[in-house]
Specification:
It comes from Halosimplex aquaticum. This protein is α/β, with parallel strands linked by helices and 252 residues long. The chain has 8 helices and 10 strands. Helix 3 packs across helix 4 and helix 4 packs across helix 5.
Length: 252
């Protein structure tokens, strides 16, 4: 069962896989650009949030729509940079990298699972899983072997040659999870991964994410109680800020 956001290994001695400190993210109301000062009217999607996630943790980011869940997830994954504050991923300050450098950092250290799968419809399940290894310059034999092994691991060994249109929603999401793991990342982030799935299929997908959290850091953003119940601890957001809970002992 998920513990409140005061619990977990956040104060542990081992280095965090990903750490965000006093994160602020503002958007220009007109152009959608990042703000660093000035008087342009803006929307503050995230306001002073700090978080650290260690290997072996399955952390849920909880909150209603518009609370900043996806914004925080995107910052931790290096998909975006903060207006203020800092994100350290795999020991590196992501803002010290340019856009291309951050893309390489993500490729090597982060696996991303999206709600709508983002699979290429013309490719087989195995080819979709292998795609990140193409970017890393791995051989065809290595790509095939690694993708096949991961599809077996997520229970899709008999669906490797099927294209996304021939797979159910839950099968597509498990292909997406296999793709997220193919580079052996230290961090896996999942943005509403069960939002398109029924409860039974969601349970299978969540079990897969829980299993992979044994060897890496997993961060899941969701408003689904079933998904959040699977996590080790929760970070609760409201209106872009982190909510504090009563002491853990009071909640038991």
């Amino acid at each position: 069962m998920a513990e409140p956001d005061g619990g977990g290994a956040e104060g542990g001695e081992t280095p965090a896989v990903v750490r965000g400190v006093d994160l602020v993210r503002e958007y220009d109301r007109g152009a959608g650009g990042i703000l660093r000062g000035g008087s342009t009217p803006s929307v503050r999607a995230l306001d002073g949030v700090s978080i650290a996630v260690h290997s072996g943790e399955f952390v849920g980011i909880a909150g209603p729509s518009g609370s900043g869940k996806s914004t925080l997830l995107h910052l931790l994954a290096g998909l975006d940079v903060p207006t203020a504050g800092a994100v350290e991923l795999a020991g590196e300050d992501i803002e010290s990298y340019g856009e291309r450098g951050r893309a390489r950092l993500r490729l090597e250290h982060v696996g991303i699972v999206f709600q709508r799968f983002h699979l290429l419809p013309a490719l087989s399940a195995r080819a979709n899983v292998a795609l990140p290894l193409v970017e890393l310059g791995r051989s065809k034999a290595e790509r095939r072997e690694r993708a096949s092994a991961l599809l077996e691991e997520v229970g899709l060994g008999d669906r490797m040659t099927h294209k996304p249109g021939q797979l159910s929603g839950g099968e597509q999401q498990r292909v997406a999870i296999a793709r997220a793991l193919v580079t052996e990342p230290e961090l896996v982030v999942a943005d509403e991964p069960t939002g398109e799935l029924d409860s039974e299929t969601s349970a299978r997908v969540l079990s897969t994410l829980d299993d992979i959290a044994d060897e890496r850091a997993v961060v899941l953003a969701s408003h689904d109680p079933q998904a959040l119940e699977t996590c080790d601890r929760l970070v609760r957001l409201r209106d872009g800020t982190r909510r504090r809970e009563r002491a853990e002992t009071e909640l038991r």
